Amino acid sequence: MAILEGFGCTLTERPKEADAVIVNTCTVIGATERKMLRRLALFADRDLYVTGCMPVVQMDKIRSVCTPHVIYPDEIRERAAGVGTRGPGATGVVQVASGCVGRCSYCITRFARGRLASAPAEDILDAVRALVASGAYEIQLTGQDVAAWGLERGELLPDLLQEIAKIPGRFAVRPGMMHPATVLGILDPLVRAYESEKIFRFLHLPVQSGSDTVLDRMQRGYAAADVVRIVDTFRDCYPDMMISSDFITGFPGETDEEFSQTLELLRRAAFVKVNITRYSRRPGTPAAALKDLPERIRKDRSRALLAEANRIYDSYNERWIGRETAIVATEKNAPGSTVCRNPCYLNVVVEEDLPFGFTGRAVITKNRRHYVTAELIPSDDEKV
Ligand code: SF4
What would the pLDDT profile of 353-376 be if each residue is shown by its tens digit? Predict the structure, then answer.
């Protein structure tokens, strides 16, 4: 967007008003790919530009519905000054790296994004400083595998987090998705980096399966016991830490026994906030050669996993009820209501109009599964 504005373009989110339309594509699963193709077909008679992952790996599919101009993600990266950010606002986003060091057998993203390319630490620190100066309280660090940041240069994420935590100002960082195999290599320093109150006690650890044999077929590079070690190490230091995860159900050949190991790991690790995806064959990946399980099995297992994940989500929220916690306002919900975060990144809704960046204390009152409600505790100056 910044590059386009530099060219003198005026940006609009309403395609009807636009002289040219840009579609930023994703093809991570089959359903997303179909949605993208429908959207491209919709704009086929316009001055259409396509970017994102699809043109890198599925140009043939794009050409089957339209004949757009192509902007490859690498071109954007070359032209962009500094690191990719989104803001200003109460929440700012900083892209710390693209690509990964994985070789997951089901993944098409690695062909589109390529090998790990980390932004220089100084550029990231500058981007965080700029967002904080513009009023951001929550800074999200993003990448396919944030734990891998810097590895290609021998630098490590925990050192970057320590440097970010030294930046003056009132803000907190929400580290993005981290591959368990990469986390294992930096586990102790990473846990120490979370000591700073400028890092939300939140970890997104996509484990995909709890079965060692499925994890092998997925080429994930860790075992279920490694996941338990990561979770226990974090929770030993930070008992309330929110650890979320992603799972794929119905990977080719997944047996009932292998699936029950996944349920077991979900329970043992007590992941809060779980994304569940039914396995979807991606063209050109090693797993595409394997025989798919029937759709019904993939669906049933997703449902069973979701029911268990919801139960865990509820019990995590319920343990906060009646407790007092620090909060910061980051989002507007509806008039008379504000979305806040606590230090564990718990979604706390306060039935009051609070300005972005407001900090205070509140008592958690109710569990609404995807958030909790809370009542503000008046500050000492407001008490009579
Ligand atoms: S870590 Fe694995 S799933 Fe993630 S982008 Fe890389 S290859 Fe894909």
Answer: 999 889 999 999 999 999 999 999
